[in-house]
Design brief:
It is a single chain. By secondary structure, this protein is α+β, with helices and mostly antiparallel strands. Helix content is 32%, strand content 28%. The chain has a single domain (34-174), classed as 4'-phosphopantetheinyl transferase domain (Ribosomal Protein L22, Chain A), CATH 3.90.470. It has helices at residues 12-18, 41-50, 53-58, 61-68, 74-91, 119-127; strands spanning 30-40, 103-106, 114-117, 130-139, 143-152, 155-160, 169-174. It has a 3-stranded antiparallel sheet with strand order 1-5-4. It has a two-stranded antiparallel sheet with strand order 2-3. Helix 4 (61-68) packs antiparallel against helix 5.
Length: 182
């Protein structure tokens, strides 16, 4: 293929790298899961109003502080609750598979919201090969919605010896391309 100006052709990978769609240190990966959830704001406000302790059980201190900066914290809490449930759906698990605190919606300044997983939720995501999360939040006066996409990496099978505490046989673990969290 010849180019009039002598420039090399732009490959799909190079274009993706330039647009920030792919990290330069690992190959592109696929979708490991998708979750969406919608929350009725009036109903959620009633739940929060009945028991003040519900908010502390569902949300991290950072999420509560962010929501309480608004004149009405319900829309912010509702979208965060929807995000937590959408993460569970993306991972293919039901309610209470892990504590709600294990999934935190974070924001830096005016930037897009993101997800931070810890504890059992992080362990489950790692076993499922999730390497990156994408999150979209929105709300109206009546409804909050969250869409979550879990981006997955290769998962390899690891065999444990017969006497190993995990028992003999294969176990799904993240690939060597993704180092374990310290």
């Amino acid at each position: 293929m010849s180019h009039r100006d002598g420039a090399a052709p732009v490959t799909a990978l190079a274009r993706s790298l330039a647009l920030g769609l792919v990290d330069g240190d690992r190959p592109p990966v696929g979708v490991a899961g998708v979750g969406v959830d919608a929350v009725d704001l009036a109903r959620f406000a009633r739940v929060l109003g009945r028991r003040a302790s519900v908010a502390e059980r569902l949300f991290t201190p950072g999420e509560l502080a962010y929501a309480r900066c608004a004149p009405d914290p319900v829309p912010r809490l509702s979208t965060r609750f929807a995000a937590k449930e959408a993460v569970m759906k993306a991972l293919g698990v039901g309610l209470w598979a892990y504590p709600f605190h294990d999934v935190e919606v974070v924001r830096v300044g005016l930037g897009a919201p993101g997800l931070v997983l810890s504890g059992a939720a992080d362990g489950l995501a790692r076993r499922r090969g999730v390497v990156r999360w994408h999150l979209a939040l929105s709300h109206t006066d009546q409804l909050a919605i969250a869409l979550v996409v879990a981006e997955g990496g290769p998962v390899v099978a690891e065999r444990h010896p017969a006497g190993h505490p995990a028992g003999g046989g294969p176990t799904a673990v993240p690939s060597p391309d993704r180092p374990a969290k310290p």
